[in-house]
Amino acid sequence: MKKVICTFLAAVMSVGLLVGCGTSDATSSSQTSMPASESASTSVEASSTAAERTTFRIASLKGPTTMGLVELMDLADKGEARHDYQVTMYGAADEISPQLIKGDIDVALVPCNLASVLYNKTEGAVQVAAINTLGVLYIVTNGEEISSVADLAGKTIYSTGKGTTPEYVLNYVLAENGLTVGTDVTVEYLSEATEVAAAMESAGEGAVAMLPQPYVTTLQMQNENVKVALDMTEEWNKVSPDSALVTGVAVVRKEFAEQNPEALEEFLEDYAASVDFVNGNVEEAAELVAGYEIVPKAAVAQKALPACNITFITGSEMKEKVSGYLQVLYDQAPDSVGGTMPDDAFYYGA
Q1: Is 201 helix (H, G, I), strand (E, B) or coil?
Q2: Residues 47-83: pLDDT tens digits?
Q3: Are 165 and 247 spatial neighbours (Cβ–Cβ below 8 Å)?
Q4: Secondary structure of 19-85 in the HEC alphabet?
Q5: Do 55 and 202 share a domain, yes or no?
Q6: Parallel, antiparallel, or unpaired for β 137-142 and 55-61?
Q7: CATH no. for residue 98?
Q8: Tally of domains in the chain
Q9: Which of 164, 217, 335, 344 is most buried per CB count within 10 Å?
Q10: Is 116 in the same domain as 143?
Protein backbone atom coordinates (compact mmCIF):
# COMPACT_ATOMS: atom_id res chain seq x y z
CA MET A 1 0.00 0.00 0.00
CA LYS A 2 2.80 2.42 0.87
CA LYS A 3 4.36 2.02 -2.57
CA VAL A 4 0.99 2.49 -4.32
CA ILE A 5 0.19 5.66 -2.39
CA CYS A 6 3.60 7.24 -2.98
CA THR A 7 3.58 6.38 -6.69
CA PHE A 8 0.14 7.88 -7.22
CA LEU A 9 0.86 10.97 -5.16
CA ALA A 10 4.08 11.57 -7.07
CA ALA A 11 1.97 12.11 -10.16
CA VAL A 12 0.34 15.16 -8.60
CA MET A 13 3.40 16.81 -7.06
CA SER A 14 2.64 19.98 -8.98
CA VAL A 15 0.22 21.65 -6.58
CA GLY A 16 2.34 24.80 -6.48
CA LEU A 17 1.27 25.81 -2.98
CA LEU A 18 4.69 26.44 -1.49
CA VAL A 19 7.24 29.11 -2.32
CA GLY A 20 10.50 27.47 -3.37
CA CYS A 21 9.32 23.86 -3.53
CA GLY A 22 10.47 21.44 -6.26
CA THR A 23 10.56 22.24 -9.98
CA SER A 24 9.04 20.66 -13.05
CA ASP A 25 8.95 21.20 -16.80
CA ALA A 26 6.77 24.07 -17.97
CA THR A 27 3.78 23.50 -20.22
CA SER A 28 2.04 26.12 -22.33
CA SER A 29 -1.35 27.26 -23.58
CA SER A 30 -2.01 30.20 -25.88
CA GLN A 31 -4.29 31.86 -28.44
CA THR A 32 -7.24 34.09 -29.40
CA SER A 33 -10.72 35.60 -28.69
CA MET A 34 -13.96 35.06 -26.82
CA PRO A 35 -17.00 37.29 -26.45
CA ALA A 36 -17.33 39.11 -23.17
CA SER A 37 -18.83 36.89 -20.47
CA GLU A 38 -20.87 37.85 -17.47
CA SER A 39 -18.36 37.67 -14.65
CA ALA A 40 -18.50 36.82 -10.94
CA SER A 41 -20.04 39.25 -8.49
CA THR A 42 -16.57 39.79 -7.02
CA SER A 43 -15.03 40.67 -10.38
CA VAL A 44 -14.23 44.04 -11.88
CA GLU A 45 -16.96 45.90 -13.73
CA ALA A 46 -17.26 45.11 -17.42
CA SER A 47 -15.30 47.33 -19.78
CA SER A 48 -17.42 49.89 -21.56
CA THR A 49 -15.37 49.66 -24.78
CA ALA A 50 -13.38 46.84 -26.30
CA ALA A 51 -9.63 47.04 -25.86
CA GLU A 52 -7.12 46.50 -28.62
CA ARG A 53 -6.14 42.85 -28.86
CA THR A 54 -3.21 42.34 -26.48
CA THR A 55 -0.73 39.56 -25.76
CA PHE A 56 -0.65 38.41 -22.13
CA ARG A 57 2.35 36.36 -21.04
CA ILE A 58 0.91 34.49 -18.06
CA ALA A 59 2.80 32.24 -15.67
CA SER A 60 0.93 29.96 -13.29
CA LEU A 61 1.53 27.21 -10.76
CA LYS A 62 0.12 23.76 -11.33
CA GLY A 63 -2.46 23.22 -8.65
CA PRO A 64 -5.43 25.08 -7.15
CA THR A 65 -3.95 28.48 -8.12
CA THR A 66 -4.41 27.54 -11.80
CA MET A 67 -7.58 25.45 -11.68
CA GLY A 68 -9.84 28.48 -11.90
CA LEU A 69 -8.16 29.57 -15.14
CA VAL A 70 -8.68 26.34 -17.10
CA GLU A 71 -11.78 27.38 -19.02
CA LEU A 72 -10.03 30.51 -20.27
CA MET A 73 -6.96 28.43 -21.17
CA ASP A 74 -9.21 26.11 -23.15
CA LEU A 75 -10.85 29.00 -24.99
CA ALA A 76 -7.43 30.42 -25.77
CA ASP A 77 -6.23 27.12 -27.20
CA LYS A 78 -9.37 26.92 -29.35
CA GLY A 79 -8.74 30.42 -30.70
CA GLU A 80 -11.87 31.78 -29.00
CA ALA A 81 -10.43 34.19 -26.41
CA ARG A 82 -10.61 37.91 -27.03
CA HIS A 83 -6.92 38.42 -26.20
CA ASP A 84 -3.79 36.40 -26.86
CA TYR A 85 -3.53 34.61 -23.53
CA GLN A 86 -0.25 32.69 -23.47
CA VAL A 87 -0.24 30.57 -20.31
CA THR A 88 2.80 28.64 -19.12
CA MET A 89 2.51 26.44 -16.06
CA TYR A 90 5.33 25.72 -13.63
CA GLY A 91 5.86 23.42 -10.69
CA ALA A 92 7.49 25.97 -8.38
CA ALA A 93 7.19 29.68 -7.70
CA ASP A 94 10.95 30.19 -7.81
CA GLU A 95 10.79 29.42 -11.54
CA ILE A 96 8.38 32.31 -12.05
CA SER A 97 9.86 35.05 -9.85
CA PRO A 98 13.02 35.81 -11.91
CA GLN A 99 11.04 36.06 -15.14
CA LEU A 100 8.51 38.39 -13.56
CA ILE A 101 11.28 40.59 -12.19
CA LYS A 102 12.99 40.73 -15.61
CA GLY A 103 9.75 41.66 -17.35
CA ASP A 104 9.46 38.40 -19.29
CA ILE A 105 6.05 37.73 -17.71
CA ASP A 106 3.10 40.12 -17.54
CA VAL A 107 0.75 38.28 -15.18
CA ALA A 108 1.53 35.53 -12.67
CA LEU A 109 -0.57 33.31 -10.42
CA VAL A 110 1.51 32.85 -7.27
CA PRO A 111 1.28 32.36 -3.49
CA CYS A 112 -0.03 35.43 -1.70
CA ASN A 113 3.02 36.04 0.47
CA LEU A 114 5.30 35.80 -2.60
CA ALA A 115 3.35 38.67 -4.18
CA SER A 116 4.32 40.84 -1.20
CA VAL A 117 7.92 39.65 -1.34
CA LEU A 118 8.12 40.56 -5.03
CA TYR A 119 6.51 43.95 -4.43
CA ASN A 120 9.17 44.78 -1.86
CA LYS A 121 12.00 43.30 -3.90
CA THR A 122 11.07 45.24 -7.05
CA GLU A 123 10.26 48.46 -5.17
CA GLY A 124 6.65 48.42 -6.30
CA ALA A 125 6.97 47.03 -9.82
CA VAL A 126 4.46 44.24 -9.11
CA GLN A 127 0.84 44.65 -7.98
CA VAL A 128 -1.74 42.17 -6.73
CA ALA A 129 -4.85 42.23 -8.92
CA ALA A 130 -7.06 39.44 -7.58
CA ILE A 131 -7.35 36.63 -5.06
CA ASN A 132 -7.81 33.34 -6.91
CA THR A 133 -7.54 30.76 -4.11
CA LEU A 134 -8.40 30.81 -0.43
CA GLY A 135 -7.32 28.09 2.01
CA VAL A 136 -6.44 24.61 0.71
CA LEU A 137 -4.85 23.11 3.85
CA TYR A 138 -6.46 20.30 5.84
CA ILE A 139 -5.58 18.22 8.89
CA VAL A 140 -6.06 14.54 8.00
CA THR A 141 -5.93 11.49 10.24
CA ASN A 142 -5.62 7.76 9.94
CA GLY A 143 -8.05 6.42 12.53
CA GLU A 144 -7.45 9.17 15.09
CA GLU A 145 -10.53 10.98 16.39
CA ILE A 146 -9.86 14.72 16.15
CA SER A 147 -12.71 17.20 16.16
CA SER A 148 -10.98 20.39 17.33
CA VAL A 149 -7.57 22.02 17.36
CA ALA A 150 -7.37 21.28 21.08
CA ASP A 151 -7.41 17.57 20.21
CA LEU A 152 -4.00 17.99 18.54
CA ALA A 153 -2.33 18.37 21.94
CA GLY A 154 0.24 15.63 22.42
CA LYS A 155 0.13 14.63 18.76
CA THR A 156 2.82 14.52 16.07
CA ILE A 157 1.77 16.25 12.84
CA TYR A 158 3.50 15.42 9.55
CA SER A 159 3.57 18.28 7.06
CA THR A 160 5.44 19.92 4.22
CA GLY A 161 6.30 23.61 4.04
CA LYS A 162 8.94 24.33 6.66
CA GLY A 163 9.68 28.07 6.51
CA THR A 164 6.77 28.74 4.14
CA THR A 165 3.03 29.39 4.29
CA PRO A 166 1.91 26.03 5.78
CA GLU A 167 4.24 26.45 8.76
CA TYR A 168 3.02 29.99 9.43
CA VAL A 169 -0.63 28.94 9.15
CA LEU A 170 -0.20 25.92 11.42
CA ASN A 171 1.79 27.83 14.03
CA TYR A 172 -0.75 30.66 14.08
CA VAL A 173 -3.81 28.43 14.42
CA LEU A 174 -2.14 26.32 17.11
CA ALA A 175 -0.97 29.36 19.07
CA GLU A 176 -4.39 31.03 18.94
CA ASN A 177 -5.80 27.83 20.43
CA GLY A 178 -3.27 27.82 23.25
CA LEU A 179 -0.91 25.20 21.81
CA THR A 180 2.85 25.68 21.35
CA VAL A 181 4.83 23.78 18.74
CA GLY A 182 7.62 21.84 20.40
CA THR A 183 5.87 21.82 23.76
CA ASP A 184 2.26 20.79 23.23
CA VAL A 185 2.49 19.57 19.64
CA THR A 186 5.32 18.02 17.62
CA VAL A 187 5.53 18.92 13.93
CA GLU A 188 7.75 16.90 11.59
CA TYR A 189 8.35 18.75 8.33
CA LEU A 190 9.10 16.65 5.26
CA SER A 191 10.13 17.90 1.85
CA GLU A 192 7.32 16.43 -0.26
CA ALA A 193 3.71 15.34 0.08
CA THR A 194 4.70 11.80 -0.95
CA GLU A 195 6.93 11.66 2.12
CA VAL A 196 4.05 12.79 4.31
CA ALA A 197 1.89 10.00 2.85
CA ALA A 198 4.65 7.48 3.50
CA ALA A 199 5.10 8.75 7.08
CA MET A 200 1.36 8.36 7.74
CA GLU A 201 1.45 4.84 6.33
CA SER A 202 4.44 3.91 8.49
CA ALA A 203 2.90 5.43 11.61
CA GLY A 204 -0.28 3.50 11.02
CA GLU A 205 -3.41 4.06 13.06
CA GLY A 206 -3.40 7.39 14.87
CA ALA A 207 -1.22 9.22 12.34
CA VAL A 208 -1.96 12.92 11.78
CA ALA A 209 -0.84 15.14 8.90
CA MET A 210 -1.49 18.53 7.33
CA LEU A 211 -1.74 18.46 3.54
CA PRO A 212 -3.11 20.73 0.79
CA GLN A 213 -5.60 19.78 -1.88
CA PRO A 214 -5.51 17.93 -4.21
CA TYR A 215 -3.12 15.68 -2.21
CA VAL A 216 -5.79 15.16 0.43
CA THR A 217 -8.23 13.76 -2.10
CA THR A 218 -5.56 11.62 -3.74
CA LEU A 219 -4.56 10.12 -0.42
CA GLN A 220 -8.16 9.43 0.56
CA MET A 221 -8.80 7.67 -2.75
CA GLN A 222 -5.90 5.34 -1.99
CA ASN A 223 -6.52 4.78 1.71
CA GLU A 224 -10.12 4.64 2.91
CA ASN A 225 -9.02 5.06 6.53
CA VAL A 226 -7.71 8.60 5.92
CA LYS A 227 -10.28 11.22 6.90
CA VAL A 228 -10.35 15.01 6.97
CA ALA A 229 -10.43 16.09 10.60
CA LEU A 230 -10.01 19.88 10.38
CA ASP A 231 -10.35 22.45 7.62
CA MET A 232 -7.58 24.94 8.33
CA THR A 233 -9.53 27.69 6.55
CA GLU A 234 -12.39 27.27 9.01
CA GLU A 235 -9.97 27.16 11.95
CA TRP A 236 -8.26 30.33 10.70
CA ASN A 237 -11.61 32.11 10.42
CA LYS A 238 -12.49 31.18 13.99
CA VAL A 239 -9.37 32.84 15.44
CA SER A 240 -8.97 35.64 12.90
CA PRO A 241 -12.41 36.75 11.64
CA ASP A 242 -11.04 40.06 10.39
CA SER A 243 -8.63 38.42 7.93
CA ALA A 244 -8.71 35.45 5.55
CA LEU A 245 -6.47 32.53 4.74
CA VAL A 246 -5.34 33.52 1.25
CA THR A 247 -3.37 30.93 -0.71
CA GLY A 248 -3.07 32.24 -4.26
CA VAL A 249 -3.30 35.58 -6.04
CA ALA A 250 -2.91 37.01 -9.53
CA VAL A 251 -0.21 39.65 -9.82
CA VAL A 252 0.55 41.97 -12.69
CA ARG A 253 3.59 44.02 -13.61
CA LYS A 254 2.75 47.64 -12.86
CA GLU A 255 4.26 48.83 -16.16
CA PHE A 256 2.10 46.38 -18.11
CA ALA A 257 -1.01 47.47 -16.19
CA GLU A 258 -0.30 51.13 -16.92
CA GLN A 259 0.31 50.46 -20.62
CA ASN A 260 -2.73 48.18 -21.11
CA PRO A 261 -5.44 49.23 -18.64
CA GLU A 262 -8.46 48.34 -20.81
CA ALA A 263 -7.02 44.99 -21.88
CA LEU A 264 -6.14 44.14 -18.28
CA GLU A 265 -9.71 44.87 -17.18
CA GLU A 266 -10.97 42.53 -19.90
CA PHE A 267 -8.55 39.83 -18.80
CA LEU A 268 -9.86 40.11 -15.25
CA GLU A 269 -13.43 39.84 -16.57
CA ASP A 270 -12.50 36.74 -18.57
CA TYR A 271 -10.69 35.24 -15.60
CA ALA A 272 -13.71 35.84 -13.35
CA ALA A 273 -15.95 34.15 -15.92
CA SER A 274 -13.59 31.16 -16.00
CA VAL A 275 -13.76 30.85 -12.21
CA ASP A 276 -17.57 30.98 -12.41
CA PHE A 277 -17.49 28.16 -14.94
CA VAL A 278 -15.14 26.00 -12.86
CA ASN A 279 -17.18 26.39 -9.68
CA GLY A 280 -20.49 25.91 -11.45
CA ASN A 281 -19.53 23.04 -13.75
CA VAL A 282 -17.29 20.81 -11.67
CA GLU A 283 -17.48 17.73 -13.86
CA GLU A 284 -16.57 19.59 -17.04
CA ALA A 285 -13.92 21.62 -15.24
CA ALA A 286 -12.38 18.43 -13.83
CA GLU A 287 -11.89 17.14 -17.36
CA LEU A 288 -10.05 20.34 -18.26
CA VAL A 289 -7.94 20.21 -15.09
CA ALA A 290 -6.90 16.66 -15.95
CA GLY A 291 -6.43 17.56 -19.61
CA TYR A 292 -3.93 20.24 -18.65
CA GLU A 293 -2.20 17.68 -16.40
CA ILE A 294 -2.72 19.75 -13.24
CA VAL A 295 -3.77 16.44 -11.69
CA PRO A 296 -3.42 13.07 -13.45
CA LYS A 297 -7.08 12.02 -13.37
CA ALA A 298 -10.40 13.80 -13.79
CA ALA A 299 -11.85 11.72 -10.94
CA VAL A 300 -9.31 13.23 -8.54
CA ALA A 301 -10.00 16.74 -9.83
CA GLN A 302 -13.76 16.29 -9.54
CA LYS A 303 -13.55 15.31 -5.88
CA ALA A 304 -10.87 17.88 -5.04
CA LEU A 305 -12.29 20.97 -6.77
CA PRO A 306 -15.06 21.75 -4.24
CA ALA A 307 -12.44 21.70 -1.46
CA CYS A 308 -9.93 23.93 -3.25
CA ASN A 309 -11.65 27.24 -2.38
CA ILE A 310 -11.22 28.63 -5.88
CA THR A 311 -12.51 32.18 -5.98
CA PHE A 312 -12.10 35.55 -7.67
CA ILE A 313 -11.96 38.61 -5.45
CA THR A 314 -10.78 42.08 -6.48
CA GLY A 315 -10.89 45.68 -5.26
CA SER A 316 -11.42 46.67 -1.66
CA GLU A 317 -12.46 43.19 -0.53
CA MET A 318 -9.23 41.80 -1.97
CA LYS A 319 -7.23 44.47 -0.15
CA GLU A 320 -8.94 43.75 3.17
CA LYS A 321 -8.37 39.99 2.97
CA VAL A 322 -4.81 40.13 1.64
CA SER A 323 -3.62 42.82 4.04
CA GLY A 324 -5.12 40.96 7.00
CA TYR A 325 -3.46 37.72 5.98
CA LEU A 326 -0.08 39.35 5.34
CA GLN A 327 -0.24 41.08 8.72
CA VAL A 328 -0.57 37.72 10.47
CA LEU A 329 2.45 36.39 8.57
CA TYR A 330 4.43 39.58 9.18
CA ASP A 331 3.81 39.37 12.90
CA GLN A 332 5.30 35.87 12.90
CA ALA A 333 8.14 36.36 10.44
CA PRO A 334 8.65 39.70 8.61
CA ASP A 335 10.77 38.03 5.94
CA SER A 336 7.75 35.95 4.91
CA VAL A 337 6.24 39.08 3.30
CA GLY A 338 9.48 40.66 2.15
CA GLY A 339 10.53 42.43 5.35
CA THR A 340 7.82 45.08 5.45
CA MET A 341 4.08 45.29 4.92
CA PRO A 342 3.19 46.52 1.41
CA ASP A 343 1.59 49.95 1.12
CA ASP A 344 -1.64 50.88 -0.68
CA ALA A 345 0.04 51.00 -4.10
CA PHE A 346 0.41 47.23 -3.90
CA TYR A 347 -3.32 46.75 -4.46
CA TYR A 348 -4.39 47.17 -8.09
CA GLY A 349 -7.86 48.62 -8.45
CA ALA A 350 -8.40 49.04 -4.72
Answers
A1: helix
A2: 446 889 999 999 998 889 899 999 999 999 999 999 9
A3: yes
A4: CCCCCCCCEEECCCECCCCCCCCCCCCCCCCCCCCCEEEEEEECCHHHHCCHHHHHHHHCCECCCEE
A5: no
A6: unpaired
A7: 3.40.190.10
A8: 2
A9: 217
A10: no
